[in-house]
Design brief:
single chain; about 220 residues; alpha+beta; five-stranded mixed beta sheet; three-stranded antiparallel beta sheet; about 30% helix; about 25% strand; elongated
Length: about 220
């Protein structure tokens, strides 16, 4: 849902003057109005990202479809099953697919290739499971029956490494969704999940308060 910045500023300013014991968290009258508003606008996208990174996916209604062209990289086989790297055999060998992620990518919600039996288990490159994906033994890697998607940073940006599939032009993305980075658009509005609005306002107020306390 799109929220105008002025509405968010009003919500956050209310939170900065409220606590259950009726004592204000901070007297915003002690800070110039323009200064408070500017801090809120600056902290808002980061606060929203922090909430969206850990929120249940069912609560996020701002998901976008993930599209793109799959690129392929052959994976090693066990020593007794090594297949020559030639076009005739490539389609018979499991391979990892690369999928470059968009600039506004924040979090992968779900991805399934057309020849996978289920959506992928999603991991990061810091996960202990990531090292297993380059094993010489197919049984411990992701495969069409239990696929794995790893979010990895390359020099040119973030990429989803998809383990594994039999490569070919007929292999496509059946379904993929991601959480975009929230940002203020040209109309000074921001798209936020309705069910997480209060959590994002609360986190924004906390971050604004931290900035003001440091300044004072």
């Amino acid at each position: 849902m799109l929220y105008p910045l002025h509405e968010i500023i009003s919500h956050v300013r209310v939170l900065l003057n409220y606590s259950p014991d009726c004592k204000p968290l901070i007297d915003v009258r002690d800070e110039p109005t323009l200064s408070i508003n500017r801090i809120i606008a600056t902290m808002l996208p980061t606060a929203a990202q922090q909430v969206l990174l850990t929120a249940p996916l069912a609560a996020i209604d701002t998901l976008r479809p993930l599209t793109g062209r799959l690129c392929w990289k052959q994976q090693p086989m066990t020593s007794g099953l090594q297949i020559p790297m030639n076009p005739m055999n490539e389609k018979h060998q499991l391979a990892m697919a690369f999928l470059p992620l968009p600039d506004d990518f924040l979090r992968l919600a779900s991805i399934q290739l057309s020849n996978w039996q289920r959506p992928a288990h999603i991991i990061s490159e810091e996960s202990p499971e990531y090292d297993l994906q380059t094993s010489r033994f197919p049984g411990v890697r992701g495969n069409p029956q239990r696929p794995v998607a790893a979010i990895v940073r390359y020099s040119f940006g973030l990429v989803a490494e998809l383990y594994s599939s039999f490569p070919g032009e007929d292999v496509t993305i059946r379904k993929a969704l991601y959480v975009p980075q929230p940002h203020l658009d040209a109309d000074r509005c921001i798209d936020l999940p309705k069910s997480l609005f209060h959590d994002i306002m609360q986190r924004t107020a906390e971050m604004v308060l931290e900035v003001i306390l440091i300044r004072n």
